[in-house]
Amino acid sequence: MKPIDEYQTYRNLPPLAGLCSMKRAIDSDWSLDESVARLKRIHYVFRRVHESLISRIPGEPIYELKTLYSHHAYLCAEQIDLIRKRVSEMREPPLGLDKVPDLNLELALDELSRCPDTVHFLAGLYRTILPECVIACERLQTDAHPLADAPTVRISKLMAFEIRDVYSTGQACLDCLLSDEDHSSVLEWQSHLQAYISSAGSIDGTSDPTPAPLSRRYETEDVIYQREPERDERFRDPYNAGVNPEAFLYNEQYAAKDKTLMIYYKRLREIDVPEVMATILIDLRHEEPWDFHMEMSRQMWDEARHAMMGEVGFASQDIDWTEIPINFTWSRNLNTQLSPRERHGVLFFIEQGLMPKTGKRYEWEIASESGDTLAKLFQDFDWADEVLHAQIGRRWYVPRYNSLGEAMAYGDKCWTRVLSKWQEYQDQGLTEHRNWWPELYTKVCSQRGTIPDPETLAFSQTYQEQRADLETLE
User: CB 3.0 to 4.6 Å from 262: which of 245, 275, 286, 456, for a disulfide?
Assistant: First the structure.
């Protein structure tokens, strides 16, 4: 018999579409069952990490971590989607993707999800759990039959590539926040989680199991998360509703170049949307199918991106955004006053309201007219994102009602029920609703070398009697 190493293709072209050598392809030490089993275990871990990241967004005060968690939750959702599609190609329903594959793996992720401390959460996720996921993906890429199971090899490669960047960024965040006093406890915590993973035979179950830890750190039965948003100390006067940027933006008397300042403010303020969407996703985690969570995770990440666009916009103008009161009462009031279905109704109503020519198209036109090329760029993509978000709402929100009109009316009704608490926040001494616009506008005019326009400087409309869509509050 001729040695397989001597197998020849036409003019020595790469064999088997470049997937592997003929010798490797002849190796039959693989099975569909093994492929499915490993994918299900990796899927379970990504699904739990996805939920853990989302659940931390409202209560995490640090702005950069809110955006980080939004991004990484979305990337985990993409990996989950890849696995679900691949498993569905290899197995007939029911696929069993919602089953816990290993008790000790479940305990490790329970511990992570219940960890109350930010530094330890970062260490557990980005130094322990996700690096182990990458190892499992790389092992699957190597072990899976490169020809018969080529689709699995492909997604394993994609997952390892993307999640490696995820945990690298997370570790950089940990390095910035980790104090000398935390080092020993963090190492002990990582060892604790690693022991659970080892007792499960690693993420993919390919190793020999070791003894499990004798006790848990967190005995809470359910994952507890905080619906009421928190903000770090840079968010000065966050209850301040003394400036209504929409009233300024839609007033024809003001110049486009000045309106871009309000556009950047509106974008940065969108950090409150992930705070609301996170609660919708967690509260409805057992009531909606995976596709709902996938698409809403994408939308949540988009909203975090929009907030960072506002941050970048202010940086481009040499404006310190921390000197401007970034209001958070929209997310606070929705999260504390409405049910998840009601919050979703308000979100949908607002998204649909952004589609007419007075919405995102208008903001793009203003940005284009202003001469600020960065604002134009951001509003172009912001508009595109909102078109997608409106479609997501029509797929997942509208079918619960008899018509689009009924769905819109319910969302409007829910928003009307939200108490702005304008006077209450002022009476509690939480804010004076200071008009911060004249100070910002004067500073920008000074940087431009221009004289402030008196009428623009005098803008003073607030949220006391109007919502963001300029509807009058009762």
Answer: 245
Q: Given phi > 0 = left and psi -120 to 50 = alpha, else beta, which region is 223?
A: beta
**Please, what is the average pLDDT of the chain?**
95
Same domain for 67 and 122, yes or no, is yes
Going by C-alpha positions, the residue among 87, 58, 89 that lies closest to residue 73 is: 58
Residue with tokens 């404006």: 319
- Whether residue 325 has pLDDT greater than 70: yes
Q: For the whole model, what pTM was predicted?
A: 0.96
Q: Within a domain: residue 451?
A: yes
3-state secondary structure of 224: coil
- 206 within some domain: no
Question: Is there a domain that residue 418 lies in?
Answer: yes
Residue 123: Cβ-neighbour burial (10 angstroms; 0-12, 13-18, 19+):
buried
Phi, psi of 102 (to 5 degrees): -160, 130
- Give the pLDDT confidence of 373-420 residue by residue, as tens digits: 999 999 999 999 999 999 999 999 999 999 999 999 999 999 999 999
d(CA 73, CA 162): 12
pLDDT score at 359: 82
Q: Percent of the chain at pLDDT above 70? A: 97
Report the pLDDT value the prediction gives residue 468, as an integer from 0 to 100: 80
> Which is more confidently placed, 456 or 357?
456
Per-residue pLDDT for 274 more than 80? yes
Q: How many domains does the chain have?
A: 2
Q: What is the DSSP letter of 54?
A: H
H/E stretch holding 173 reads helix 150-177
How far apart CA 327 and CA 334 sit, in angstroms, is 13
Indicate which CATH number applies to the domain containing 137. Answer: 1.20.910.10
Q: What is the pLDDT of residue 470?
A: 76
Give the per-residue pLDDT at 355. Answer: 58
Q: Would the CA dihedral through 112, 117, 121, 127 be positive or negative? A: negative
CA distance 219 to 6: 61
Take residue 419 and report the two structure tokens written for it: 């108490």
The token pair at 276 is 């609301």
Helices 373-396 and 290-316: angle between axes, nearest 10 degrees: 160
The CATH number covering residue 260 comes to 1.20.910
The residue range of the domain holding 182 is 31-199
Contact 258, 304 (CB under 8 A): no
Helix (H) or strand (E) holding 196, with range, is helix 183-199
Q: How far apart are CA 395 and CA 348, in angstroms?
A: 11
Query: Count of residues for the chain?
Result: 474
Q: Which of 142, 169, 199 marks a domain boundary? A: 199
Q: Which pLDDT value is given to residue 29?
A: 96
Q: Are the beta carbons of 124 and 190 closer than 8 angstroms?
A: yes
pLDDT in tens, 100-124: 999 999 999 999 999 999 999 999 9
Query: If we measure between CA atoms, which residue out of 80, 106, 90 comes closest to residue 36?
Result: 90
Token digits of residue 371: 């001469």
